[in-house]
Hints:
By secondary structure, this protein is mainly β. Helices cover about 0% and strands about 60% of the residues. It contains no helices and six strands. It has strands at about 1-10, 20-30, 30-35, 45-50, 55-65, 70-75. It is elongated and about 45 Å long. The structure holds zinc ion (ZN). Zinc ion binds near residues 13, 16, 63, 65 and 66.
Amino acid sequence: MGTIDSNRFKVTCPKCGAIESVAVHEKGSAYGASWQSGPELKAFKVQWEDKGSSGPFVVSAQCRVCAISATIVGP
Ligand SMILES: [Zn+2]
């Protein structure tokens, strides 16, 4: 048991240079694996998409300060 997989994303704002990293983990158990849901980020408004067994992915992010689309680097 424990963390058996994870998705990591780095979100950056091209205007103000804000940067934030986030990771979601898959937890295994005797009954199967389940993913954490995507958390809120401090600097960005993030849209998560649940891709089933692949877990949640960041599909879009917007800087809370600049209100522009952020750059997402993910798996
Ligand atoms: Zn910004």
